[in-house]
UniProtKB/TrEMBL annotation:
Entry's EC annotation: 2.7.7.101
Name of the molecule in the record: DNA primase
Gene from which the chain derives: dnaG
SMART domains xref list: TOPRIM, ZnF_CHCC
Organism: candidate division WOR-1 bacterium RIFCSPHIGHO2_01_FULL_53_15
Coiled-coil regions listed in the entry: 542-572
Subunit note: Monomer. Interacts with DnaB.
Amino acid sequence: MIPPAVIEEIRHRSDIVAVISGYVALKKRGRNYLGLCPFHSEKTASFTVSPEKQLFHCFGCGEGGNVFAFLMKAENIGFAEAVAELGEKIGVKVGRTAPSTSSSEKEKIYSVMLLAAKFFRSALESEAGGPAREYLAKRKISEETAKTYGLGFAPASWDELFKHLISRGAAPELIERAGLTLPREGKDGYYDRFRSRLMFPVFDVRGRVIAFSGRALDNSEPKYLNSPDTPVYRKGDTVYGLNFAKDEIKKKNAAILVEGNVDVLSVFAAGFANVAAPLGTALTIAQCKLLSRSTDTIMLAFDADTAGEAAAERSAEIIRSQGMKVRIASFTGAKDPDELIKNEGAAAFSAAADAALPYLEFKIRRLLKKFNLGEIEARSQALRETAKLLAGEKDAFAQKEYAGLAAGLLKVEAETLMTEIKRQGYLSRGSEKNLSKVTEKPGDRLGAAEKKLIALSLQNEAALAAVKQELAPANFLGSEAGKIAEILFAEQPGAGENLSHLILDKLTDEASKNYLTGALLSEGLMENPAGIMRDCISVIKAESAKKRVDEIKSALREAEKANDNQKAAELIAALKNEIY
């Protein structure tokens, strides 16, 4: 166990705003900081961080907690790991506890993956690696670039890697769990997953090898073979090359995103060190959030074919949904960034990057390609679809400017297009209004009173004293409120202890923790604390009394059914006592 005093010192000395700023772009709003939540997709910032309370809470998805909770959620690590990591940052030594089974297994997998990467690297430099070196030379990938990215070669042998790892002390089951081998069908033993392939190690943002991508050197299928998901790797959560690119991305406040591993190497070698790739998958929200730790701007440089354009459009929509800016580059005379750089040089890629289009312009031009604009009916349909697209743009200036651009391409008056945009906007707002009527929920008077009173009690000593005098834990009827009240009434914090953090530490379920951070970071409580306190106590007392009356009435009905006159008389007396 880590001593509580050490945990408290690390928490006290850690600045939650500084820690979270490494993951989320925060902007000061009054006493707090606001940003887009890293735990769910949102367009309007609802993720709040309080430097005063050293807490965070998202009013969109409900996630909340202290600095340890944030790191645990953001990095998918345990409490002890979060404490140790923060302790290392601020110079506080943490006595390592025995690792959990899951964290111990992960550490072993990291070790096995590093051994595999070194094995593949050595194989590339051996005589057997000749075909892989020839492929690299053909693709004009320099020795220096190959070394930087740790490229290697998987020999043709069925089990050479497996035997090597066993000789280094790795357990067969662990090697399989790492995604490096497969069990032989109908036989004992294992065989290597990757054979006769150029190997691209995949690193996490900390530079640890977590997976591999193997490129076939002949016509074998699949062309690229990727590691399966493992305890240390999930494809949709990883961005290839980000560990090398993140510092340059921060420096330039822009990331270049390409489709393939070779594109990453070519663009990097051409002098653009802020390049990464989504690793053979459509861009995911998780990958987007990973990139957003370093920048709010992404340029997409995907393949120049129809599939590449469609992938760029889908990716751009995800990027925009996270509140980030996006531009999309196009190429002529080349199918992808790698080919463009090989044929025309780094200057051609730089020019394509400079000419990259904003998302809406790219989408408008791509949309209009589908129509024969020489035909009136086609132009009419194109106008309606363009208007529908632009009706969703909230920035009035941007909407008007893009309407002017689209009108020019459609060869219609800008006013004609603006009229259709307004019509589409009315249709959209009408649908949203109807939906809100269906989904709207009635307010919870008791729930609001409990939440406000708990928050007030933790921020105002007079309120806490009044609550303890006027109420009891049993008066708090809500599930989360009741659990918090039990601790609130029982705890007597020592000198220098923070009662809010004390309660957070004692709560065992996430719902109650999120409830508490949401209560504490809600605004408006300090404008009239005495009045709010009186109103909340009054509501809670009334609802608590109503509950007791309902319970007595229910018990009375049961007593009357059972002809238990004595019990019924006692309940009637109790009921009169409650009512009068």
